[in-house]
Amino acid sequence: MKVSNKQISEKLQRKGLRITPQRIAVLEVIYNTKDHPSADKIIGLIRKTHPNIATGTIYKVLDTLVDQNLIRKVNTDKNLMRYDSIKEKHHHLFSLEADTIEDYYDKELDKMLAKYFRKRKIPNFKIKDIELQIYGKFKSKNSNKKKC
Amino acid sequence: MKVSNKQISEKLQRKGLRITPQRIAVLEVIYNTKDHPSADKIIGLIRKTHPNIATGTIYKVLDTLVDQNLIRKVNTDKNLMRYDSIKEKHHHLFSLEADTIEDYYDKELDKMLAKYFRKRKIPNFKIKDIELQIYGKFKSKNSNKKKC
DNA sequence: CTCACTGCAAAGGTTTTGCAGTGGG
DNA sequence: CCCACTGCAAAACCTTTGCAGTGAG
Fold first, then answer.
1. Where are the strands (E) in B1-148, listed by range?
2. Phi, psi of B81, deg, nearest 5
3. E strand intervals along B10-124
4. Which of A33, A136, B42, B136 would staple A128 via disulfide (CB 3.0–4.6 Å)?
5. Cβ separation B96–A135 shorter than 8 A
6. What is the DSSP letter of B38?
7. A83: closest CA among A33, A128, A10?
C-alpha cells in the first residue's frame, strides 16, 4: 500500500504546486507513516535521507499542504501538532498510555450519526463534520508498551 | 448557576490541595466562563481583580488542577491549550469561523454510541471514552460573526 | 529566465523551570 | 513553624518569519 513518488508528484501537480524534493519528502513521510507524526518526527525522518532540508522549510511545506487539503492537522493534548494524510472520512483512536493515534474507519457509524443528527437538531448550530476521539487502550502487537 | 468560592474551596480541600487565592481565582474563571478559555485568557481575566498573580503560577495551578481532575485540557487546532471544567460527559461544538468552542450534552447520543460499540468491537482496542468533535457554524446571537 | 520555493537564523508566542521568599494549615 | 505554594525571570519549546539565494517549469 506504499504511496509512490509518482503518485505524490501527481497530487502536487493537480493542486498547481511545484514539485520539489522537500514537498515529496514530507508527503512521503506522512503518507507512509502509520502513526500520525508530529512536525518534529517528520523532520527527524526526513533528515535521515535529506540531511539538509531546513526546519523552517518543513513547516512551510506542512502549511502549504494543509492549505491545499493534502494533509490535515490533528489535535492532541500536548501542545504540538500532528499531521495526518487526508483519506476517507475517519475517526481517531487515542492511546491513554502511549502517544499513539490510529485511524478508525466505520461507515456504519457515520451513517448512524448522520441519521441521528438529521432528526435531532442542535439549536443554532449547523453541523458540517463530526469526528470521534475514542480514548482507550491498545491491547496487542501494535503497542505492547511497558508499564510506567 | 454561578459556582461560589465556598464550593470551589471544598473541591480543593477534597483533593487535599491547599486553598490559595490563586487557585480559587483560576477555578472561578474556569467554572464561570462559558467559552473554554485559553491560559492567556484566564490570565487576563484574573489580572483584572488580582493584578499580581504571576503567569508561571497560573500555569502551575492549571497543571495541578488537571492532574487532580478538577479541570481538563481541550484540544484545539491552534497550538495553545484551552481549559474546561469537568462536568457531566459532554461533547464539543467547534465553530469553523470563530474561535468558539461550546459544550454539547446529549445523553441519548451517548447511549446510542455505547450500544453501538457494545456490538461492534474495535479489534485490539478497549474503549474508555468517546468524545465527539462537531464542526460547524453557529447561527445565532452567540456568534454572529462577520464574514472574512 | 522568473518567481515560487528553500535555507538559514533570528524572532515570536506559549509553556516550563529554578529558586528564593511567603503564607496556609 | 514548616513545607506547599507563589512570584519572578530566565529558559525551553515549538512554530513562524524575513530575506537572500536557488532551482523548477
1. 71-74, 82-85, 91-95, 101-104, 125-138
2. -90, 155
3. 71-74, 82-85, 91-95, 101-104
4. B136
5. no
6. B
7. A33
Would you state the cell numbers that stand for residue A80, as one nine-digit string? 504540538
CA distance A127 to A32: 31
Query: Whole-angstrom Cα distance, residue A78 to residue A99?
Result: 10
Q: Is B63 exposed, middle or buried (0-12, 13-18, 19+ CB in 10 A)?
A: exposed
Which of residues 112 through 131 in chain A touch B, CB cutoff 8 A?
A: 112, 116, 120, 122-131
Minimal Cα distance from B91: which residue of A?
A: A132
**Å between B75 CA and nearest CA of chain A:** 5
The tens digit of pLDDT for each residue in B12-63 reads 999 999 999 999 999 999 999 988 999 999 999 999 999 889 999 999 999 9
C-alpha span between B69 and B2 (Å, rounded): 20
